[in-house]
Amino acid sequence: MKSAKPRILIADSDKKSVTLLNQILSAEGFNTIVCETGSAAWQAFEKHEPAIVIVDWVLPEINGLDLCKKMRADPRGRHIYIMFLTARGLRENIVAGINGGADDYMVKPFYAEELKARVRAGERMVSLQKQLLERNTMLEELVYTVTHDLRTPLIAMDMTAQQATDGLYGELPASYGRILDTTRRSLKDLLGMVDNLLSVARYESGKGAAANESCSILKVCQECMSELSPIYSRKNLQVNLTSNAQEVQVNVNRRDLRRVILNLLDNAIKFTPAKGEIRISVELAADKVIMQIQDSGLGIKKEEAKQLFERFARAKSTRHAPGTGLGLYLCRRIIEGHGGVVDCIPRPSEGTTVSFLLPVSNQK
Ligand SMILES: Nc1ncnc2c1ncn2[C@@H]1O[C@H](COP(=O)(O)OP(=O)(O)OP(=O)(O)O)[C@@H](O)[C@H]1O
Ligand SMILES: [Mg+2]
């Protein structure tokens, strides 16, 4: 089935030019919307979400260049095709137009066949972008469905290994016990990865911080520490938690707060050599709480620190270590989704401090 022709918005105040454009484009089967001012064009853009925009430079109210920048800055205008059609043909105008977000630039008076060819090129671009976005969504859905379906067998395998360790299937030789421990650790790593991916998907689909509840940050932190204690004990790491408060309640999705703390602790453990130290502090300051996880590990280069909160970002020096580069990204999404901020303070040759700040809840 042939897909419908994209809608074209024409922003031009010159009646003659508009009539001609309309004739040419209608004959080609396009639906056009004509606006004579910049603000009318902006309103039409918001209402009709056209795929292609042909804009003149000189327009009343909002000029063509500002209109182009405004549309490009809007999420709905990120993938549209914008073309200038204007009498302003100086090189600096062309450069400014394209730098302002336009995909193409034509100077009036125009030649009909050239206009048609360029609009067709725009149509091809729009259609390719659409296909790419659709494929991307499909792939993401596939990844998340597979990831989700992995959870149940992983939990079942972990339970079976736990039962075997507990002697439910009879006494096991010591070497089997060690194998089971290693297997369970790997299963936990896989489950952590699966849970990170699913949480990222939830935040990216806008359903992130919906279910808030008041929970104790100290309790959640202690739970995470005891969950990871077999791993840091094996590395002989000293892990200490200190706080200037007995109790700190935060209004967050408990499961998400656990993911943040587990990810930050996991990093500190992973990137700190044996016999090192990890200090966790929870400081209450007025209506905020600041949690810091400070390790004596490899450290992070100052210039790399900020970008590590981006998707799939990993420092050059740690590419050998296992991981996907999603942990810190997820921490940022969760903390920002709950009105907080994350930060990373590199302490060259001393280790790393990663911290986050959250508003404190009033509920007890
Ligand atoms: N405490 C730390 N010390 C040194 N480097 C760190 C520390 N925490 C994070 N990093 C750097 O930041 C990168 C991104 O961390 P992030 O947690 O997002 O990903 P990861 O640990 O590599 O993988 P995963 O998705 O399994 O968490 C790490 O790969 C590492 O380079
Ligand atoms: Mg990590």
DSSP helix fraction: 40-55%
Q: What small molecules does this complex bind?
A: adenosine-5'-triphosphate, magnesium ion
Separate helix tally:
10
Q: How many distinct folded domains?
A: 3
CATH architecture of the largest domain: 2-Layer Sandwich
Structural class: alpha/beta
Order of helices and strands: EHEHEHEHEHHEHEEHEEHHEE
Number of strands: 12
Per the principal axes of the C-alpha atoms, what is the gross shape? elongated
Q: What distance separates the N and C termini?
A: 60 Å
Catalogue the unreliable spans: none
CATH class designation of the largest domain: Alpha Beta
Question: What can you see in these coordinates?
Answer:
By secondary structure, the chain is of the alpha/beta class. The chain folds into three domains: 7-110, Response regulator (Rossmann fold, 3-Layer(aba) Sandwich), CATH 3.40.50.2300; 136-204; 213-359, Heat Shock Protein 90. It is 49% helix and 20% strand. The protein has helices at 15-27, 38-48, 64-73, 91-99, 112-165, 174-204, 217-234, 254-270, 302-305, 327-337, and strands spanning 7-11, 31-35, 52-55, 81-86, 104-107, 213-216, 238-243, 249-252, 277-285, 288-295, 341-347, 351-359. Strands 2-1-3-4-5 form a five-stranded parallel β-sheet, sandwiched between helices. A hairpin with a 3-residue loop joins strand 11 and strand 12. The chain is elongated, with a radius of gyration of 28 Å. Residues 196, 263, 267-268, 271, 295, 297-298, 300, 308, 313-315, 318, 323-329, 352 line the site of adenosine-5'-triphosphate (ATP).
Brief sketch in words of this structure:
With 364 residues, this protein is of the alpha/beta class. The chain has helices at 15-27, 38-48, 64-73, 91-99, 112-165, 174-204, 217-234, 254-270, 302-305, 327-337; strands at 7-11, 31-35, 52-55, 81-86, 104-107, 213-216, 238-243, 249-252, 277-285, 288-295, 341-347, 351-359. Helix 3 (64-73) links the parallel strand 3 and strand 4.
